[in-house]
Design brief:
Blueprint (H helix, E strand, L loop, with lengths): L5 H22 L6 H8 L3 H7 L3 H24 L5 H17 L4 H12 L3 H27 L9 H22 L5 H15 L15
Length: about 210
């Protein structure tokens, strides 16, 4: 019998988890069942239980994986060269790509919020997610203060938390708008807020808008 490698184990876990996420997006956490995950993944019930303890663990791991992908995108897009405006724009486009435009991402996150009041562990994961986004915004804000782009008494913490709340509000709007959603319209909303915090310098109009 061929030896199962750690790489194969990781691939099988990831395959099952991706299938579970698709099921959760399509049917919701409450309606989804392990049998649905079996049908979507093409693996047996026994194989699923070899890797995960049940639906609750699949929900937990799906949320954790989504949080990690989103946080990595925001950090990669937001912490490099440029002024505060450019960094925040790149962080925003990363957020759009992974939390709003990725298939099923917005609906999945809204379901997580709905479940948080009954599931303390999920609530804790969502708090961790929010704090990561706050951290990215705060890093950009503190760099801007040090560079003289923002006043020395600028309330970086309040800005970071307000900015995070704005982004999460866009997720709700994405779900509410359904087929009428247009990314360009939503970008204008968030950029209107950004103009108050870090106005675009003259001559930079249109710069940094990586996504059309």
């Amino acid at each position: 019998m061929p030896r199962i490698t750690a790489e194969h184990e990781a691939e099988r876990r990831a395959h099952i988890l991706a299938a579970a996420r698709r099921v959760f997006v399509a049917k919701g956490f409450h309606e989804a069942s392990i049998d649905d995950v079996v049908a979507e993944s093409g693996v047996s019930v026994g194989a699923i239980y070899n890797y995960y303890g049940g639906k609750d663990e699949l929900i937990h791991e799906s949320i954790l994986a989504a949080i990690n992908v989103e946080a990595d995108a925001a950090l990669a897009d937001g912490r490099f060269v440029g002024d505060a405006r450019a960094k925040m724009e790149r962080a925003i486009w990363g957020y759009f790509d992974f939390a709003i435009d990725a298939p099923g991402a917005a609906a999945f996150l809204v379901q997580c919020w709905a479940l948080a009041s009954q599931k303390p562990l999920i609530r804790d994961l969502l708090v961790r997610r929010r704090e990561r986004t706050v951290t990215v915004a705060a890093l950009i804000g503190r760099d801007a203060v040090e560079a003289g782009e923002l006043p020395g008494d600028f309330d970086v913490e309040a800005m970071a938390r307000g900015f995070t709340a704005l982004l999460d509000g866009l997720v709700l709007q994405r779900v509410e708008e359904g087929d009428s959603y247009r990314r360009a319209d939503m970008e204008r909303r968030v950029l209107a807020f950004l103009d108050l915090v870090a106005p675009r310098r003259r001559g930079d109009e249109g710069a940094g808008k990586a996504q059309a």
